[in-house]
Amino acid sequence: MQRFPLFIFILSSAIANVWAQPSRWQLESKLQKGVSAGVDLILKQEYSKADSLFSELCREFPAHPAGFLYRVAVLQARSIDFSVPVERGIFDSLLVLGRTAAEKLQSPWKEYYLGTADGYDAYERADRGAWIAAVRYGSSSASKLEEVIGQDSSFYDAYVGVGTYYYWRSRKTEFLHWIPFIHDSRAEGIRLLGIAAERAGENRYAAISALISIELDAENYEQVEYWSRRALQHYPDTRVFLWGLATAYDRSKRYHEAIPAYRTLLENLVLAHEPHPYDEIVCRLNLSKSQLSVADTAGVREQLQKILSYDSVQFSEALQKRAEAKFQDTRQLLNSLGKN
User: Fold this and answer.
1) Phi/psi zone of residue 129: left (φ > 0), alpha (ψ -120 to 50 degrees), beta?
2) Cα 188 to Cα 162, 165, 337, distances in angstroms
3) For residue 147, which of 136, 163, 158 has the smallest C-alpha distance?
4) Which positions ≥6 away from 295 have C-beta within 8 Å?
5) Fewest Cβ atoms closer than 10 Å to its Cβ: which of 67, 68, 111, 222?
């Protein structure tokens, strides 16, 4: 399952809740409240409502980057959640408007919003395979957010993007850590994220999402469960946290707990505003495998047959091969059931 770290850039570079910052960093009251409400809608996966709210902020505060960049956040969040390509035309236009407005701000907000824009750009380019440009924009994003922290170490929103970048940069270059000037910054990245998870406002969910991704990668499944449960206390229907909990149980072979976790997630996917065919396939397949691992065959054949009913769905180019692999696994499981 490739759910992580897909959602991380949205939460880590997008959700800048300024309520937690010192008063000298707070936005104008109405804009501040609008940003907080819109972020809450993103976490609740109410993307149309969030976009409408941020569009209104763009009209009311056309000289400020927040409305434009949070509309970018909505586009990416929806793209990731529903496994569909981002609307590139709108995406690029909003980034231009956000960067133009950010250039006119005073520090540290100028660097913060420019770093946020670079973070969105990096993720989108990586998603379509433009890796060289993605690395360049990711490095630029982290550099700008480091400037923010250098100006004020209590600007905890910036910790999330920097901490996430530190971990994944080191993780992807770990084969080079023997070289003297290539440092392993994974522990520092986790430390920064831990601070943000405890001290930021709504942005703590950004840090929690990043930590879920990282601890899954590091196979620290107890930590994944811990952070997933903390987030689900406040956002019980948010799929990224439901995936985290179910995946932690699954990978740690706690199948009796993975089964109800996957069932809860599956119900969420089925009842969502729009279909999630690929995620539904993965969830049903993981649920079936968890059941078979504890010799529970009840309903498994029906789950597998439901997966194959999606065989005619036209997935994006990026998902098609992954979907075909899931269909192959499904057929093999069905064949094995047929022999019993």
Assistant:
1) left
2) 10, 10, 48
3) 158
4) none
5) 222
Residue with tokens 């986790």: 190
Domains and CATH numbers, the chain: 8-252 (1.25.40.10), 253-340 (no CATH)
Where does the chain have alpha helices with state H? 8-14, 29-43, 47-60, 66-82, 88-102, 109-127, 131-151, 157-172, 186-199, 204-217, 221-234, 239-251, 255-270, 277-293, 300-308, 317-338
Cα-based angle 292, 244, 229 (whole degrees, multiple of 5): 110
Among 276, 13, 261, 237, smallest CA distance to 124 is for 13
Give 10-residue mean pLDDT values along the chain (340 residues): 42 40 53 91 95 97 95 92 88 97 93 93 86 88 95 91 90 58 84 92 82 95 97 95 97 98 97 91 98 96 97 88 96 85
Q: Residue 202 has what pLDDT? A: 62
CA angle (202 as vertex; 199, 206 as ends), nearest 5: 85
The whole-angstrom separation of Cα 70 and Cα 84 is 19
Written as six digits, the tokens of 186 are 């994974």
Specify the amino acid at residue 19: W
pLDDT for position 131: 81
**Apex 185 CA angle, 207 and 160, nearest 5:** 20
CB 294 within 8 Å of CB 317: no
> Do residues 37 and 201 lie in contact, with contact meaning Cβ atoms separated by under 8 Å?
no
The Cα 205–Cα 40 span in angstroms is 10
Measured CA to CA, the distance from residue 7 to residue 76 in angstroms comes to 9
What is the pLDDT at residue 201? 66
Q: Is 236 helix (H, G, I), strand (E, B) or coil?
A: coil
Q: Quick one: which of 273, 215, 292, 205 has its CA closest to 247? A: 215
pLDDT the model gives residue 19: 35
The reported pLDDT for the residue numbered 331 is: 97
What pLDDT, on the 0 to 100 scale, is given for residue 128? 82
